[in-house]
Amino acid sequence: MQIETEASGEDTVLKVSGRLDTLNAKPFEGKLLDAVKASNGAIVVDMAGVDYVSSSGLRALLVAGKAMSPHKRKLRLRTLQPQIQEVFDISGFSALFEIS
Amino acid sequence: MSIFAELLAGLGLLFVGLKLMGAHLQHAMGREVRRLLRAATVSRVSAFLCGAVAGAVTQSSNAVTLIAANLVRGGVFQTRQAIPVVAGANVGTSALVFIASVNLKVAVFYLVGLVGLAFHLRMDKRAGWRDWMGVMLGLALLFLGLDFIKSAPQELDLAAAAQAVGSLLTPTRGFILGCLLALVTQSASTPTILAVAVVQARVMGLEDGMFLVIGANLGSGLATLISAGDMKGEGRQLCHAAIQVKALGCLMVGLTAVAAMLSGVNLNQWLGHLGGGEPAFVLSIVFLALQLSGALVVVALVKLSERLAVRFSPPSQEDRLSRPHFIHDQAVRDPPTALDLVTRETARLVTQLPAILPDLDRQDGGEKPARLAAWKGAQAISAATDRFLTELIDQRLTRTDLDLALRAQAQVELVRALQETLHEFGMVVDGFRPPPPLVFNLSESLRAVLLVLSDAMPGESMELDLDVLDTLTSDRSELLDRIRRDLATSCAGGGEEARALMRATSLFERALWLVRRLCLALRARANEDNPPEWQSSSLTS
To answer: What stretches pass through the bilayer (chain B) (predicted)?
Structure first.
């Protein structure tokens, strides 16, 4: 799994590629939480390069979302591959995050 | 030949009678026997007496041992509390042997007459009466069988038969024969009753008969272990306790007999005096002495007995997982504490839910035996919590406590339904090798929802977690219907795989619905604990 972080105005964009599985979920969660602490804007996760998401990956996103929620900040996801979109739809996670 | 036929018919009637009586007694008194055994935990003496009554009623120490073992597995009582029950049950089974030593013909006539009249008066239309009529008919057949067995040897050329048996049978052979007969019939009473019949006809000496009864006693202990089958851990410990009762009885009575023989006592003569010249009664006394001596030692040294049983059958992983962490018997006396403990126990059960599901993120999908043990353990704790709440509700509770207890019970019921659904879902998933994308998505989605649910237990972020769960478990029937339609189109010919996929979607939907109901229950409880200050928030707002 690879994560590239870049700033876009007030927002922070994380470009993720590879597998969001049990093995990678913790480092991914750490990167997300670092980004939450480092900025005050929205966090955008670009998932164009992600071809696998398990329950651990979903949970990592949720932890970051919960960390931002008290400050009314947003976690957005973008460019989900169709099979990843299906996991989000079935699990109901697509209703939790803004997905574009 | 007619002797053999009569003996065989007697045995057949005995077995049919026992079966009939046992089955109807189970219906008529099964609940009472279980209640009796549950109440047995007050003291060693009460446990012993309850076991004796249960043994006399069921006429099977095996059956009582297995019922008690299941109650131990279910967490109703501990091995140490159940050991006196098992010991007592062995003593209780002596009743049949004593009955066999008296004249039963008249009793058979009365029993058959009464049952026949009851049938003629159509009393069998009422379920309660029907069961007791079955018990009486079973008893009549059993007595008739005993009578056949006892009268069969009387048609023999007794002198020749006695000579033949006397030349073939030695105390050791009698012991082995008794042991084998008990293993075959799964009972110590049946070979003893046979021995009573043969000794009464003077075909076998009292001394040989006694060693046959001792052998039968040990054999029935081994039979208990065989009946336990694949029962492991704590459940099997009581079977070891049953063997201890049998072995100790054999050792004490056997050693006494051997010591008497070695010191020159004529055992036949001595035993003859013991029963007042009635050989059948002597063997009944020997049988009772075997049960009583073993049972009393085991009850007196119950801690040692338990240690030995645990050593031979240590608690299994399932036993460890089946043990409640918070609730305990004494807590029922203090309802507010009891309710608090139930909340904690239920919360723990909820956090354990993901362990029942396959983890498809792992190559082995999560070890199946571990998941099975987690499911069985969780089920046992749910059942124990439910029983605990029932006991609590049976007490005089305040209106508030009663309301809380009833709601907690409904919550436990939801958790049990969820455990069952997740287990079924896991079984469907296990049927796929490797799981297709849809199964992976369903399984990992469900796991993610359950992980959120386990985070939603009382804590700082509970409200937020419940909001998240509210969204995650919202109605998804449109999406799932579309998936089912796609499945139906792509697998137009039907087939096993398509059916399994359909089943997986249905179970997934049911699991989500149950999680939603559980969340509603948790939210209601949380609102009562912290009156409505909080504001709804979601991750997108």
So the answer is: 46-72, 84-112, 132-149, 175-198, 210-229, 241-261, 281-302
pLDDT tens for each residue of B500-511: 899 999 999 999
Cβ-based contacts of A68 with chain B (< 8 Å) = 539
In chain B, the N- to C-terminal Cα span, in Å, equals 93
Minimal Cβ distance to B539: which of A54, A89, A97: A97
Cβ–Cβ under 8 Å, residues B228 and B69: yes
Confidence of residue B139 (pLDDT cuts 50, 70, 90): confident
Q: Is B479 on the interface with A (CB under 8 A)?
A: yes
B446 and B301 in a single domain? The answer is: no
Residue of B448, B349, B343, B339 whose CA lies nearest to B398: B339
Prediction ipTM score: 0.92
How far apart are the C-alpha atoms of B246 and B214, rounded to whole Å? Answer: 9
Helices (H), B232-351: 234-262, 267-274, 279-300, 302-312, 317-321, 335-351
Which among B447, B474, B508 is the nearest to A95, CB-wise? Answer: B474
Contact B445 A54 (CB under 8 A): no
Whether residue B424 lies inside any domain: the answer is yes
Beta pairing, strands A75-78 & A43-53? parallel
CATH number at residue A79: 3.30.750.24
Range of the domain at A19: 2-99
Residues of chain A with C-beta less than 8 angstroms from the C-beta of B505: none
Please identify which residue in the block is written with the tokens 């670092």: A34
Contact list, B541 vs chain A (CB under 8 Å):
69, 72
Task: State how far the Cα of A68 lies from the Cα of A37, in Å rounded to an integer.
Answer: 9
Q: What is the mean pLDDT of residues B322-351?
A: 88
* Chain B environment of A74 (Cβ under 8 Å): 540
Angle at B535 (CA atoms; ends B534, B536), nearest 5 degrees: 125
Query: pLDDT at position B146, please?
Result: 77
